[in-house]
Amino acid sequence: MAGKLKDEILYDHNHDGIDRRGFLKCMAWAGTGALCVMSGGVLKSYSLSRLPELSAKEDLGELSFVQISDSHMGFNKPANPDVAGTLKAAVDKINALSPAPEFMLHTGDISHLSKPEEFDTVDQILKGAKPKYVFYVPGEHDVLNDDGKQFLERYGKGSKGGGWYSFEKKGAHFIGLVNVMNLKAGGLGTLGHDQLEWLEDDVRHLKHSTPIVVFAHIPLWSVYPEWGWGTEDSAQALAYLKKFGSVTVLNGHIHQVMQKVEGNVTFHTACSTAFPQPQPGKADSPGPMKVPAEQLKSVLGITDVNYVQGQQALAVVDSTLA
Amino acid sequence: MRRSVSIAVLAVALVFGMGTIAVSQKNFLASAQEKPATTEVKIDNFSFGPATLTVPVGTSVTWTNRDDIPHTVVSTEGVFKSKVLDTDEKFTFTFSKAGNYPYFCSIHPKMTGKVIVQ
User: Fold this and answer.
1) Where would a tag sit more exposed on chain B, N or C end, judged by fewer CB atoms within 10 A?
2) Which chain A residue is nearest to residue B110, measuring alpha carbons?
3) Which superfamily, per CATH, for A2-308?
4) Would you kindly state where each structural domain of chain B is located, as residue ranges?
5) pTM of this prediction?
6) Where are the domains positioned within chain A?
7) So what's the ipTM on this one?
């Protein structure tokens, strides 16, 4: 996957730093989410568009869940005038999965402008999904104007501080982190002292063999700091997770699939269900990428992760809506 | 973009007499004192333009978001703070005291700018 990032722009039709070939490559990775399959302590992730080819061959493990991200409900610009439609398409894909995933993770930017009706619309659409439980972490678009008060009222029940929390599923330990609050001028995403202290304590008593799944909106690795695609104090968070044999980090925010393995940690970012964003540095800014309508669904997706007990890291592959 | 920056630089040069035409400098300052000037900052492509703006005391600065993505205009030192600005929405703040006013977009903190009030 990483090798594809080296692609050169062959012909820049719209002077936006992206050529048609680049679009197609990007679309091939994209998905409105991912199916995550944990198998033997190893998390694998599949882009939902590729599920038909993969599911026949793959063991769905002891736990599977879905990651969706960046629904941006309320966005209505040319990059995708129908974000509700593409979220519904993602739900249809999720509902086609067999067996049904146990739950969903939403890695933030549920809404575009933090408006109550935007959250309502997403809630309504996700009610149509077979997995009944959704775990959320906020994106920066969900905490506009009120420092996250509305987000916490809606989705933060039982969470700590600014909305962070952890839970156990079938022997795996899931940690939802918040890195979109109190951002400082010139900086990146921030976890903050309180959350880091909580994290250290949260994992202190876990066995080293416990598979860890961390999810947060802004990537916890430096994807492209020039565009703010990274988290200032993520190194400290990852230091607390060093002792574990299997750590998977799931993020959203950048509206494209990227993966990276560093030691015991596998990092993944998911596609948006709303609109794609350019590859790092391949445009003047990280604004929405406009693709032809008939191609849009192929750059949106969901991530599915399955878990099978074992010793390795989880792995994620993304799928598109097309 | 480049043109608007150079126009802004020219305007600043005129207002503060960085050029050598003393008479026009005087006239400009006089008119600025009579009627507060309004100055625009455009938000394009995840950046403030011009990123540094120098204005006389009493100037109202208006920011306009021309991106497809919402932004905010937030003083680093807590002097002013806009609501979130969707596409084409504006925020205006009047600078009544001299000083340096760094600001940023609280949603995309890599976006920074500065207003220098003299």
Assistant:
1) N
2) A186
3) Metallo-dependent phosphatases (3.60.21.10)
4) 36-117
5) 0.78
6) 2-308
7) 0.73
